Amino acid sequence: MRTFISTVAAVFLALGITTAAIDRREVDIKAPDGVMLAASYYLPAPDRPGPAMLLLHQCNRDRQAWNELASDLANAGIKVLTLDFRGYGTSGGEQITGVNAQAQAQREGVLKEKGPGDVDAAFAYLVSQKTVDKSRVAMGGAGCAVAPAADAAMRHKEVIALMVLSGAATDQARAYISQTPGLAVFGASGENETTGDTSKPIKDIVAASKNPQSTVKTYPGFQPGVLLFSRFPDLEPLIVNWLKTQLVSATPPTR
After folding, report:
1. DSSP characters for 128-187?
2. Is 240 part of any domain?
3. Omega of the bond prior to 46 within 30 degrees of 0, cis?
4. CA-CA 20 to 30 A from 92: which of 38, 152, 232, 253?
5. pLDDT tens track for 111-149
6. Is 255 among the domain residues?
7. Is the pTM of this model over 0.85?
8. Model confidence over 211-244: pLDDT tens digits?
9. Is 254 among the domain residues?
10. Residue 42 maps to which CATH number?
11. How many domains does the structure of the chain reveal?
């Protein structure tokens, strides 16, 4: 396995009162069929036992889209693994180019077929790290990765928090969320009423939750997934503070 460690400069949390050095480690994770998946592992320096999160990117981005959020979460004491889906970024697998409907359908087909195994391999890597507290784990996804993230939370009962941006969950995942009050959900989306309520899929995910800490945030206009961060600078600190409440401060729920 390739591991590269670089010290990331001190970063500021939204409140701007604490700073810390973090490590970013570049790692390769083997998928079930042998394809090598590229990932980045962010952790506080020095590393101590604590919570962790896996972040999955939307289909028009790669794992680098999470750099700032992952750094801020590590600064807050939450270890973060960001993954390039196969065919994206520096992961192996066929690179599907083009922006037409055929290419999009092809990408979605690969994600549906291979995504669960790839996500499970990344999750297994994350929870195998000796300083990860397996009772305090979160999943996150944006756009096309909302469904894989929610499905992964359904498969892995260790997950106690789910963060989703601008996407839809499967019926099975929404049913699981409804039946699992120990799973808190944070959802955010743009809201464009002129073309139909584009925030409805996210609202439906959060509405399914029985957890009192679950919350939804909507913004005017349609800014898909991580593009919300650049237009609405309050969102990232909201996510960091919400995840700190779920993973760092709170007592893990009894399953």
Report:
1. HSTTEEEEEEEEEEEGGGHHHHHHHHHH-TTEEEEEEES----HHHHHHHHH-TT-EEEE
2. yes
3. yes
4. 152
5. 999 999 999 999 999 999 999 999 999 999 999 999 999
6. no
7. yes
8. 999 999 999 987 889 999 999 999 999 999 999 9
9. no
10. 3.40.50.1820
11. 1
